[in-house]
Every structure is written in C-alpha cells, then in structure tokens.
Amino acid sequence: MGKRLAIAGVTGAVGQEFLQILDQRDFAFDSIKMLASKRSAGKKVTFKGKEYTIEELTEDSFGDVDIALFSCGGSRTKEFGPAAVKAGAVVVDNSSAYRMDPEVPLVVPEINAEAMKQHKGIIANPNCSTIIAIVPVWPLHKANPVKRMVVSTYQAASGAGMAAMRELEQQARQVLNGEEVTCDALKYQLAFNCYNHDSQTAPNGYNAEEMKMVNETRKIFDCPDIGISATCVRIPTLRAHCESINLEFESPITPDEVRELLSTAPGVTVMDDPENNRHPMPTDASGKDDVFVGRIRQDESVPDNCGINIWVAGDQIRKGAALNAVQIAEKLL
C-alpha cells in the first residue's frame, strides 16, 4: 500500500523536481494531487505516463491526502499547512515558515531522522545552503566535535527559483548583445557578475540566508554552542551551490582521516585530486543526489592540527530542496 500524495507548488522549480525524484525513486503512492496557485489551475502535468490536471491550492485540498510536499513559499505554507494537518496529512515543508519552531522537527535524514518521531503534523526541510554544508560536516562532527565552522557560499541562480534561472540566461544574452540587462526575478545583474545574497540584512550585519545557516545547523546538530559564521554570495551559475567550509575541531584531525570518514558517509562523494586540480564544480553536482567534497586540506593557521578546510558542491534544487523532502516522505511510508 502506498500513500496519497499532494504537491503544493507543483509548477515551480522544486515542484517539478519533486515529480522527477518521485519517479526516479519509484516512490510508492496510491494517488497524487497537483496543486498550485489559481492562475495555474486547469493546466496539465504529465507524470509516470498519466496526465493530471492542476488544482488550485485551497484549505479544502487535503481531505484525501496522507503526505503533502509543500514548496509554495512561507506565507502560503502558513496559510494552508495547518489546514492540511487538520485534514490528517503530514506536511513536509520546503519553506522557512516553521524551521525554527521548537515544536517542528527540522530534518536532514542522513543526520537526524529520529527527530521525525516528534512531529505534530509538520516536518521542516532546511535551507538549501544549510543542507549542502552539513551533510559532509556531520560525519566529521560525530567523530570529532566541531568547535567552529566558517562558511562562504557560492550560490546558483536556482536558489531564487525557476524565474531567476531563466533571467540569468536572458541576462547573458543581453550582455553579449550589448543590450540593457533585465532585473526582475534577480535584484541585480548576475550574468558575468556576483553579489551578496539579497535576503534582508539584520542589525548584526548578517543577512537572513547567513543566519539560517547558523540557526538551522545548531538545531539539526542539537548543538547550540557550536560557533558558526557565514557569508552568502550569489554567482552566475544555473544550479548547484558551492561552499568553502573551514572547520575547527576539538581534537587533532588529518586530511586523510577526513577522506576516510567521508568515503563511507551517506549522501557524500569525495572528489579530491590535487595533482590534477580536480575538485567539485557545479557541473559535477547538477542533477546528482550526493554532495561532492574536495580540496580537503589542513588549516595550518589552527594550532595542533585541529583545523580542516573543505570545498563542497551540491545541487540546490535536488539535495538542497526536493530530494531531502522526498527522503523525509520515504521515512513516513
């Protein structure tokens, strides 16, 4: 017996990725509902050789649903998520609406799947940058606790949605043709450029994306004292984020020990070839499930060999969003 599914936000980049991953992983379901905004209602979606009609997302959409995958924005999740729970569905939400709610589990299955047992109808999917960072950091932290983590992100247009991906392609053509650059989905020109993540800046000088990495990591690791500092930057790639991660451990650790730990870590692929300068790139991670890790080296500025640098690449739409949510849903089967 499978579950009765619903996808809220099926027309977006993550919603479309939900369908691909459910198909590829042969997710067991008895029925599936395609939900989106009123303007998308009536459009057709083909999934597993069958045509479905998109329905408008309303409070009455969930009477015959067991699991609802949400990727429709925080405000709409807060509007319709409680109705789904009241109707008996479990909501797996990709927005930031409930991530820091102490009553809502924030889950990366490779790290804290057991937290799902405490859910009260909603399970939150972490931020994409957080997931991509901590999937490889967690097995290291388990073996040798991390005291401090400094992260710099190199985030693709996909993090701002399908419209941003299309606009990046359009901007590239405009720049090459000497035309004025369109900035509708993106705040600034991204083609042949990069800029600090344009989420709202807090009084402490850090933007919301950076603080998500701090607060979400502490919650998922159940480690409120770990020191974390992040700088988040948007770069002109279509999909797959990269991150430079500097780690300070409680005890000495070597690059070879890191490679050994990561070589058997779930959700991780080591790509570390310094002789050929071959390390993870967005093109390696795009469309892939794993987070790729390379440039594993000692941080010689940290005393007693307690510092390590790594470089990671992970598909923002996939493991950073849709895949993580589907993995959560699989554990609900």
Detailed description of the structure:
Helices cover 31% and strands 25% of the residues. The chain is built from nine helices and 15 strands. The model has no long low-confidence stretch (mean pLDDT 96). The protein has a seven-stranded mixed sheet with strand order 10-11-9-12-15-14-13. It has a six-stranded parallel sheet with strand order 5-2-1-6-7-8, sandwiched between helices. The termini are close together. Helix 1 links the parallel strand 1 (3-8) and strand 2. Helix 4 runs parallel beside helix 6 and helix 4 crosses helix 9 (318-332). It is globular. The protein is an alpha/beta fold. It has helices at residues 13-24, 74-86, 109-112, 128-143, 162-176, 208-221, 255-263, 282-285, 318-332; strands at residues 3-8, 29-36, 44-47, 50-53, 55-56, 67-70, 90-93, 122-124, 146-155, 195-196, 227-234, 241-249, 268-270, 291-298, 307-314. It has two domains: 3-126 and 321-332, Rossmann fold, CATH 3.40.50; 130-316, Dihydrodipicolinate Reductase, domain 2 (2-Layer Sandwich). Residues 268-289 are annotated as: Disordered. Catalyzes the NADPH-dependent formation of L-aspartate-semialdehyde (L-ASA) by the reductive dephosphorylation of L-aspartyl-4-phosphate. Residues 4-119 form the Semialdehyde dehydrogenase NAD-binding domain.
Overall helicity: 25-40%
Helix count from the secondary structure assignment: 9
The backbone outline, from C-alpha atoms, is: globular
What fraction of residues sit in β-strands?
Answer: 15-25%
Which structural class do you get from the secondary structure elements? alpha/beta
Quote the average pLDDT: 96
Q: Which strand order spans the largest sheet, edge to edge or round the barrel?
A: 10-11-9-12-15-14-13
Tell me the CATH topology of the largest domain: Dihydrodipicolinate Reductase, domain 2
Biggest sheet architecture: 7 strands, mixed
Order of helices and strands: EHEEEEEHEHEHEHEHEEHEHEEH
Which residues form runs of ≥5 with pLDDT under 50? none
Distance between the termini: 9 Å
CATH class category of the largest domain: Alpha Beta
Number of strand segments: 15
Structurally, the number of domains stands at 2
CATH superfamily of the largest domain: Dihydrodipicolinate Reductase, domain 2
CATH architecture field of the largest domain: 2-Layer Sandwich
* Radius of gyration, in angstroms, nearest whole number: 20 Å
